[in-house]
Amino acid sequence: MLLIWNRPGFTEGLSEQDRTALFGEVDEIMKELTETGELIGGQALANPSQTLTVRLVDGNPEVLDGPFMESKEQFAGYLAVDCDSPQRAAEIAARWPDVRYGGAMEVRPIMDEAGTEM
Amino acid sequence: MTEDRTVEDLLRTFAPQVLGLLVRRHGQFDRCEDAVQEALLAAATQWPGQGVPDNPRAWLLTVATRRLTDEWRSESARRDREVTVARREPAYAGVAPAADAEPAVPADDDTLMLLFLCCHPALPGSAQVALTLRAVGGLSTAQIARAHLVPEATMSQRIRRAKQRVEAAGARFTMPGPAERAERLGTVLRVLYLIFNEGYTASSGPDLRRAELTGEAIRLARILRGLLPDDGEVTGLLALMLLTDAHRAARVGSDGELVPLAEQDRSRWDAAAVAEGIALITEALTWSPPGPYQLQAAIAAVHAEASTAAETDWRQIVALYRLLARIAPNPMVTLNQAVAVAMVDGPRAGLALLTPLDADERTAGHHRLAAVRAHLLELAGEVGAAREAYLAAARGTTSRPEQRYLEVRAARLTGQP
Locate the RNA polymerase sigma-70 region domain: which residues (chain B) (predicted)? Predict the structure, then answer.
């Protein structure tokens, strides 16, 4: 799983040209991953201003406005890929344009239900 | 001959034979495979209602050939040469061929060559697996995708690319020479074992459907043994699969938790599979030089012969592992060897075997190494270190059942539930 972290709305500050280039890059990577059969799925998340967070307040779960973490970077979406190695997954993540704009990609294996005999 | 066999059985028996014959005649693996898939689809929709034809294999061959010919014709002038070739096959133009029109090469050889083709060295492992399941196993792309827990589109791309790579590698549909044949057979065995393990390691819970893979791997290994009865490693692999799969009912508890070999209720092992596996490996070892699959099957047979874990002939298992480590050295072999050595010479001796694995990049930091070390430390009475090692192993695995098992082991050492 490739988790995309970025500064919400960072594309607003880009020039039209840069923004088009960025979306083009994403399309390109998605197209390539579809062709190699490595793409399993992915979703972009809406702006954190649309977020509700449920957490315990005075012993009761309460619904609050805003994201869970108040950090500058927010969880923006994910890509699920089926690759031969963690190195290959990191290689895909390294090409994701958000990284160049101060964001980060977190690459984490997905747990499965298979288990070897011990 | 067809009364008591289902349409699916028939299709899966004949699919590789028909595909093999087509590819040998026309080359173009990619197109032949598509044509066979269409013929299988037609059969699956027509036979149940209209009855199975007298000669199902000829029927499939005719339909698949017609698809190929149609496709070539529709490409008109560019494909003149192929059309000419296809037209030169009047026996397949519309009617089933007569019995004497059967090919000179037995269908068995086509199946074997098809296996070699699907396990072509130019393909990555995942593609070899997918292609083998589809072309030789006759599974649909949807079934293969389900078994691998990926979307059908992903699997269909993987198969399409694999077919193109076989084509691009210029793979000729001919039996490889003796040296290459031995090498290719090694890949075929590895791919079948990979298919088996993909199914076997996921025999519980929501992934029950992956058990299809275990059955398929055993079926393919049986076919391969039928083709190559004089190869000890082929027999060894079949025996190993049967002896391992026999644990199926006992290896997972009622809550989906993993039950280690030592704690399994052996009365729940599949007695028929155990008996067949033991008979196969015992017989093979009398005439074949022992190879890695035979030795692993022999180890599984020694486990199966003991009525409880405590009665296991660990000395024999240690001897077999020593031999295995000599002919096929591998850190995973060393891990298992360490457990057996610990049972004979004590946990310290087992732990000593693990030390070099910390410096081996294939196992350093691997959760299996931590899990085995934890087990041996526990046997040695080093509770604190054992607990740390179990927790390290639990953090390192991506398997939920393994993680649960390892966390429970760690918790037991601190007396927590």
Answer: 10-76
Q: Which of A35, A109, A115 sits opposite B401 (nearest CB)?
A: A115
Radius of gyration of chain B (CA): 25
For A50, the token pair is: 């649309």
Q: Which residue has the higher pLDDT, B288 or A117?
A: B288
Residues of A in contact with B401 (CB under 8 A): 113-115
Q: How far apart are CA B282 and CA B276, in angstroms?
A: 10
Tell me the pLDDT tens digit for each residue of B330-368.
999 999 999 999 999 999 999 999 999 999 988 888 999
Report CB contact under 8 Å: A117, B403. Answer: no
A118 contacts in chain B (CB < 8 Å): 258, 260-261, 371, 375, 402, 405
| Percentage of residues of chain B with pLDDT beyond 90 | 47
Rounded Cα distance between A19 and A94, Å, is 18
B405/A115 CB distance under 8 A? yes
Using only the alpha carbons of chain A, give its radius of gyration: 17
B329: how many CB neighbours lie within 10 A of its CB? 9
Helix ranges restricted to H, B246-363: 271-287, 292-305, 314-327, 331-345, 347-354
Whole-number Å distance between alpha carbons of B132 and B115: 7
Chain A residues inside the 8 Å CB shell of B151:
40-41
pTM summary value:
0.83
Low-confidence ranges of chain A (pLDDT < 50): none
ipTM comes to 0.82
Residue B288 confidence (pLDDT): 94
DSSP type of residue B259: -
The answer to whether B257 touches B404, Cβ cutoff 8 Å, is: yes
**B299, amino acid identity:** I
Q: What local confidence, expressed as pLDDT, does residue B415 receive?
A: 64
DSSP character at residue B132: I
Distance CA B215, CA B147 (A): 12
Which residue of chain A is at minimal alpha-carbon distance from B404?
A: A115
- Its sign, for the CA torsion B390, B392, B394, B399, is negative
Q: Which of B286, B310, B311 is nearest to B298 (CA)?
A: B286
Decide: A2 and A92 in contact? Cβ < 8 Å: yes
pLDDT digits (tens, 9 = 90+) for B40-67: 989 988 988 888 888 989 999 999 999 9
